Amino acid sequence: MKVSVSSDMDEPVARLLVDELRRRGHEVRTHGALRPGADPQWAVCSEAAARDVAEGAADQAVVCCWTGTGASIAANKVPGVRAALCTDAATADGARRWNDANVLALGLRLTSAAVLTEILDAWFAAEASTDPDDVQNVARVGRLDAARKVS
Fold it and tell me: For this structure, is 65 an active site residue?
């Protein structure tokens, strides 16, 4: 799987994230502080990773900033992206399952190596729900994106 990763800071957990994704066999594309010469501002690098997903250059993305909030906000401004800020494995599982999230947002401040591994395990193991209510909600989000493109 192709995974785009961004971080506004070159923190140990961000480096661990890249290493862990590669160890799991994913092809990783980096943005922000993880890529020499790239703009590390959270809005810029999160948008770049999210655009990779929206444009099909990546299957998934992981966007990081100190709290994860700014990265998730920026990523969610890209039409077609459903970014979820996840602080634990249960939230990551639910985001993939019920929301068909395609971008994982992480906070650099509180995510430990152990929690990161648990979040990634849950994120990549979960699949989008086929429950009609969940499918309908995800479709509605897609229509919101489509309406935004028109205006």
Answer: yes
- At which residue do the structure tokens 């290493």 appear? 19
Phi, psi of 48 (to 5 degrees): -60, -45
Closest CA to 108 of 59, 144, 62: 62
* CA gap 96, 103 in Å, rounded: 9
Contact between residue 81 and residue 38 where contact means Cβ atoms under 8 Å apart: no
> How many other CB atoms are found less than 10 A from the CB of residue 62?
29
Give, for 84, the enclosing helix (H) or strand (E).
strand 83-85
Helical H runs in 55-131? 69-76, 89-99, 113-125
What pLDDT digit, counting tens, does each position of 40-55 carry?
999 999 999 999 999 9
Distance CA 90, CA 11 (A): 24
How many angstroms separate the CA atoms of 101 and 92, rounded?
A: 9
Give pTM, 2 decimals. 0.95
Query: What are the pLDDT digits (tens) for 14-45?
Result: 999 999 999 999 999 999 999 999 999 999 99
Instruction: Exactly one of 45, 64, 65, 86 is catalytic; name it.
Output: 65
Helix (H) or strand (E) holding 45: helix 42-54
